[in-house]
From TrEMBL:
SUPFAM superfamilies to which the protein is assigned, alphabetical: Acid phosphatase/Vanadium-dependent haloperoxidase
Keywords for the protein's UniProt record, in alphabetical order: Membrane, Transmembrane, Transmembrane helix
Protein name: Phosphatase PAP2 family protein
Origin species: Autumnicola musiva
Residue stretches making up the Phosphatidic acid phosphatase type 2/haloperoxidase domain: 60-174
Membrane-crossing segments per the record: 37-55, 62-86, 106-127, 134-153, 159-178
InterPro entries the record matches: PAP2/HPO, PAP2/HPO_sf
UniProt key word Membrane: yes
Amino acid sequence: MWDQLKQWDRQLFIYLNSLGIESHDDFWIFVTQPEHWIPLHILFFALFFISFHWRKALLTSLFLLAAVFTTWGFTNLVKGLVLRLRPNNNPNLIEIIRILQEPTNYSFFSGHASTSFAAVTFIVLALKEKSNWIFLAYIWPIIFVLSRIFVGVHYPGDIMVGALVGIIMAYIFFWLYIKSGKRFYV
């Protein structure tokens, strides 16, 4: 069963990676770099300070950061235990996939997926009462994680598990935020 899932994951990766178009490579390389999303991250924090009293905005920001950094740490712990090679490091795939990046650490599960989905899910939970449009924030992690397939560094399973872990972590930290922050609510 496990071998069959890995085979399907590999086949789906090869198919999706092959959909990449050379003229879009620069876009995917740009999108996959976390530092290019800093203006969006600043906007998210600004929305907290626009939507809430400064104390609640600060508390919300701290819990968001705690959720993201805990997720990042957990992701790296799991990568170190599972030791799954990235597609770009798999000798059986190198000749048949498009590789635009060559990280050397491990693949399972995607840190881009886990941290971006943790961040956006927490932001949506915090701001959904203030804006119906906040759900559009999910466009960012979807584009962000798709880039990982097109640059050749993550299997779809890595991304799906990473997104699920991120969402779960966001709910845990949002629950902790609600429990600890009642006195700051305005």
